[in-house]
Design brief:
This protein has 274 residues and is an alpha/beta fold. Helices cover 36% and strands 20% of the residues. The protein has a single domain, classed as Rossmann fold. The chain contains 9 helices and 11 strands. Strand 10, helix 8 and strand 11 form a beta-alpha-beta unit.
């Protein structure tokens, strides 16, 4: 079985946030893959409900400091890191005072879908890839989970037009039960254009809501993991119709994680050892 470098990008990971289907797989799948001999890096957003003191997060100065332009404004990219000692695993956090410190997650204190979620997912996707470049760590495959990570493949394509760092990097997307009501603002097309979106990209992101966003991620991805028995049936069918490599959900986690690990070999090849 091949080894290779796998980058995991999750919208939530326990124990930094409460347990859920998404945060559980975010915690245990990377550990399983690491135990199988693969090299991993793990990223998630640093929402305000991630307690810095309790989790002993600290800023990674050599990775922080750059500004990312989102909606024609500079936003500082801050990278923090915390550890899960029982897993021998570090987790990198994408942080920014405006986009992440003010809100606990995807909704404001009144339970309303945050009006700046469009800019937040742009910042998170681009910020993650910029941080990985600064690490000088080239992943063979990126496994991203949750709608908040869905801009990863878009930026992967756009960045590669200018910089070949991620050349050859493949992607796998996990479908979970994380649908939200509502849609992103009408300015999303303009913001995507500013980040290099082509006409083909913009067609994928028209009338952007949960279904549109997730279908775009599936379209870009090389493989799909059905990570929840409650994953949207239309999206599962869409993945199959687009002839993606699909790993079906399995409640036996040991079997499920082994199937995912084999999917990596199918997509990136089984003879990668560097």
């Amino acid at each position: 079985m091949g080894k290779g470098r796998i980058l995991f990008v999750n919208q939530e990971i326990m124990p930094f946030v409460p347990e859920s289907e998404s945060s559980y797989i975010g915690r245990y799948l990377p550990s399983y893959v690491q135990e199988k001999g693969r090299e991993i890096r793990v990223f998630m957003p640093r929402f305000s409900n991630v307690n810095e003191r309790k989790n002993q997060l600290h800023e990674v100065i050599r990775l922080s400091g750059m500004n990312l332009i989102v909606n024609n404004a500079d936003h500082q990219l801050i990278i923090k890191v915390g550890s899960i000692p029982t897993a021998r695993m570090q987790v990198y956090f994408i942080d920014n005072e405006e986009y992440f410190t003010r809100h606990k997650g995807f909704f404001d204190d009144k339970g309303v879908f945050c009006t700046d979620n469009d800019e937040r997912i742009l910042f998170f996707g681009r910020g993650t890839l910029e941080a990985v470049r600064k690490l000088a760590w080239q992943p063979h495959l990126i496994h991203f989970t949750g709608w908040f990570s869905c801009m990863i493949p878009f930026y992967l394509r756009r960045i590669n037009k200018e910089n070949a760092f991620f050349s050859g990097t493949k992607t796998v997307f996990s479908l979970t039960d994380d649908a939200f009501e509502g849609s992103f603002g009408p300015d999303m097309e303009r913001k995507l254009k500013a980040d290099g979106a082509t006409a083909k990209d913009l067609r994928l992101f028209e009338n952007l809501d949960y279904m549109t966003l997730t279908k775009a991620a599936i379209t870009y991805a090389h493989g799909i993991v059905i990570a929840s028995p409650k994953a949207n049936a239309e999206l599962v069918a869409f993945a199959r119709e687009n002839k993606k490599h699909v790993v079906e959900y399995n409640p036996d986690r040991a079997v499920f994680y082994d199937q995912i690990n084999k999917l990596y070999d199918t997509i990136i090849g089984s003879n990668i050892n560097n």
